[in-house]
Design goal:
This protein is mainly beta. It folds into two domains: 79 residues, no CATH class; 75 residues, no CATH class. It contains three helices and 14 strands.
Length: 194
């Protein structure tokens, strides 16, 4: 596993993922979304398709990320749940206004409104324990990609701290087939959790 980028590249943090009500979003095809309702809670790791109208109600077809990647691979049909549009928010990337995000351990900084879907701030992977399985922003080739999962905890290679990552399509294919994907050793300072 060779290292993919230059260890001296240290980018600014990636964008913040802000939940936007689905009724305000024009194109939802394949968008990452949050579903839920005040008083109930919030589900992440969902994908949407464009809304449909049934009996006068606007509904958004939702599938799990696992089903989304299964469908992308052509490995069977994905069956969507139709969810009222008012219970769906699209995660939109917005510029990160705060490049000095505190570590995720500070409870007072993590308090939110339980009746609104939370904003997802990126945290440096070096500040987050238990990285295996988490989706991360990966600074690769001079830009951020948001479709990677960690498949290891941090380790050292020639004095650099790294985490092994795979693309999300390969991550979900691995779950379905048992075939491990090709992993990349990424510098830990090029990774932020989502």
């Amino acid at each position: 596993m060779g290292l993919a980028d230059n260890a001296f590249d240290i980018p600014d943090p990636p964008p913040v993922l802000v939940p936007v009500p689905a009724i305000r979003v024009f194109d939802m095809h394949s968008a990452r979304v949050v579903s839920g309702a005040p008083g109930s809670g919030w589900q992440f790791d969902l994908r949407a398709d464009d809304p449909v109208t049934r009996e006068g109600q606007l509904l958004v077809p939702l599938i799990t990320e696992a089903d989304y990647y299964r469908a992308v691979d052509g490995d069977g049909d994905a069956y969507a749940s139709l969810v009222p549009a008012e219970d769906v928010w699209v995660q939109q990337a917005e510029p990160n206004p705060d490049t000095s995000t505190p570590p995720p351990g500070y409870l007072i900084d993590r308090l939110t409104d339980p009746d609104a879907p939370p904003v997802r701030k990126p945290y440096p992977a070096s500040d987050v324990p238990g990285l295996t399985g988490l989706r991360v922003w990966y600074w690769h080739g001079g830009e951020f990609r948001d479709d990677f999962r960690c498949v290891s905890e941090p380790f050292e290679v020639d004095g650099d701290f790294c985490v092994r990552v795979v693309d999300e399509a390969g991550w979900y294919r691995w779950q379905r087939t048992g075939q491990p994907p090709k992993a990349t050793d990424a510098f830990i300072h090029h990774l932020w959790t989502q």
